[in-house]
Design brief:
The structure is a single chain. The chain has 465 residues and is an alpha/beta fold. It folds into four domains: 141 residues, 3-Layer(aba) Sandwich (Rossmann fold); 121 residues, Transcription Regulator spoIIAA (2-Layer Sandwich), CATH 3.30.750.210; 95 residues, Transcription Regulator spoIIAA (2-Layer Sandwich); 56 residues, Nucleic acid-binding proteins (OB fold (Dihydrolipoamide Acetyltransferase, E2P), Beta Barrel). The protein contains 15 helices and 21 strands. The strands form six sheets. It has a six-stranded parallel sheet with strand order 2-1-3-4-5-6, with helices on both faces. Helix 1 crosses helix 6. Bound molecules: S-adenosyl-L-homocysteine, iron/sulfur cluster (SF4) and FE3-S4 cluster. The site of S-adenosyl-L-homocysteine has 16 residues, from strand 15.
Length: 465
Amino acid sequence: MSSRYDRYMNLLKPLSPDDATQGKVYIETYGCQMNFNDSEVVLSILQKEGYRYTGRMEEADVILANTCSIRDNAEQRIRGRIEQFAFQKKKRRGVLVGILGCMAERLKEELLENATVDLVAGPDSYRRLPELLAQCRVEGKGIDTLLSRDETYADITPVRLDNNGVNAFISIMRGCNNVCSYCVVPYTRGAERSRDQASIVREACQLYENGYREVTLLGQNVDSYRWVGPSQGEASEVVDFADLLEKVASVHPRLRVRFSTSYPSDISDKLLDVMAAHDNICRHIHLPVQSGSDRILEKMRRKYDRAWYLERVRTIREKIPGCGLTTDVIAGFCSETEADHRDTLSLMEEVGFDSAFMFQYSQRPGTLAARRYPDDVPPEVKTRRLNEIIALQMRKSEERYAALAGSIQTVLVEGPAKRGEGFLCGRASNYMMCVFPGKGHQPGDYVRIKITSTTPATLIGEVVE
Ligand code: SAH
Ligand code: SF4
Ligand code: F3S
């Protein structure tokens, strides 16, 4: 007798060579780079089972949203989108709507109560998507939100979306073992696990062979990457993040390597030395500080204080001159006073970040902060503090970019710039976006650019012959 699983899987078998597809899949992605990379994994899994990708929701048989829960407004946006999906379902019978990712994991069955939603799948359930979709066709609904201790999708080659053929993401780990009191990620993504190092290096090699010239290694806290195991026929070895970065940098000198996100208490001198030793490891570190106040950092359960953070910044700048530094900041966390807020401003003033992602604190249900501390900074105060933070950062960005006027930067060409006909864009090693009039250059070329003018977010220059 066949099991339920076999029955669903039989439904997936192509009926005839003329009917080789299961239908078209459209996917929208919200949230972080890791979520974008997950959508590429999802498409790879579905394509193997006969689904085809479409960029047009209007012609899709399956509409998927890979969602984010990091702040309340991220979830509200997705709720609005579900209403749009309902409209598609009304117009065309048989369309299935699936919610994937962090919001699926956080809300589980609650999402299925919405008549529009047929499928709910958490971040560790993507291998089961073909089966769950088949189940939806038979039973109406399908859900799997089990988190895993070891799923890393290591063997799945992501289908590259939004493809300029130059940069690609490689997820090197999943989940997070920190418990920052404001953050929902440990609940939506589960425990931290590192992906087999050999599979990461192999993916980087394949990307280089396929013409890619930049890879970004992704994890919530890349510095805690750790792989223990045998490697390509050799004895068991322990690979930490610095070792991994070195291996990926050794794939080819013309393959640039970036990484994100670093956690201030875990970023090691060994890592900085590896960066300094390899020209193709980009001179950029995204080092989220969150707050400049020790009292708030402690309440946030970040494992460093202001002095530690500033020491790391000094060491980074000593070991890697010209290193780009970017950060994340939260305004108005529980109990934050004006003095705490001024500490954040003064830290930002002192460091001088190139750019920053800046947010108002948003209470997330189930987190430590939601259970322990009242969300007591009034909304108008949060907004005012955030505006002050943004204004300061604008000024700093302007200074940081302007300081590079007259310098020569090596830029990896990504494609046409929005600036107009003939202009190309690409990033300098320090992550700053650079725009220049192209001279027959192609995406993937390295060009030396002399910077002639700047804005707070762009370097403008011309090719050095
Ligand atoms: N793992 C990374 C951050 C991932 S989330 C790190 O630890 O640095 C990305 C950013 O979203 C965080 O750095 C933080 O600034 C912001 N964020 C997370 N939870 C938030 C919340 N509840 N309210 C507002 N911003 C939040
Ligand atoms: Fe969230 Fe902290 Fe983990 Fe970053 S390190 S994902 S902020 S819990
Ligand atoms: Fe959002 Fe989940 Fe990433 S909550 S930021 S999509 S890990």
